[in-house]
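Moderator note: this is an archived Q&A kept for reference. The question asked for a predicted structure of one protein chain; the sequence and the answer are reproduced below.
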Amino acid sequence: MEKSNGLRVILFPLPLQGCINPMIQLAKILHSRGFSITVIHTCFNAPKASSHPLFTFLEIPDGLSETEKRTNNTKLLLTLLNRNCESPFRECLSKLLQSADSETGEEKQRISCLIADSGWMFTQPIAQSLKLPILVLSVFTVSFFRCQFVLPKLRREVYLPLQDSEQEDLVQEFPPLRKKDIVRILDVETDILDPFLDKVLQMTKASSGLIFMSCEELDQDSVSQAREDFKIPIFGIGPSHSHFPATSCPHPTRLAFHG
């Protein structure tokens, strides 16, 4: 680790292995650059704090029942977590900021920003109300991240039902795919998915920046388009395992899926 720069970063991962690991890897990168790290996490699928003794871990209640914790319905799980964790997260973050303001002397550290997983729906307005910059971490490539927001738009347009004469028509938003290629993706239950994606898009555009798990050199066209779409700074940090080895999670069967 470089000498401390006097700044602390707060990270808030979703409690899914595919989300926890990239966030912890990002924490290691930031720590190696001199930042102090605080990780706010839920009781459910809590990261193993003893594996990261240089980080501060703060647990908040998630309100999940034992039955809800065992669900395989990821959309339902994300809905419950976003509903249950908003108030505990606000309280925890407020206390952190108050504590930082009261510190004096050599131990005083300024909280630089909050980095939250893109699947949290409430973090941006809370950070804004507390005047704390927030960056969004996407555990996907920027190509996938931006393309998922096109799906609700396509569903609202004339792609379904698809006429035989339209099968070979190109999809302008997904070159070189044709309309027949995306019908299966569009023809799914959308009562939860589309509002969720619309909210993620809204929160991302209102943030101070987007961090994605890929190299800009490998995703140049999509990064350029994403900068035009979101109109915020975008940072590619490359595959996280290229910096540090992967971190184990208590529940390896849990996968990240925002949608």
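Archived answer notes: The longest helix spans residues 74-102.
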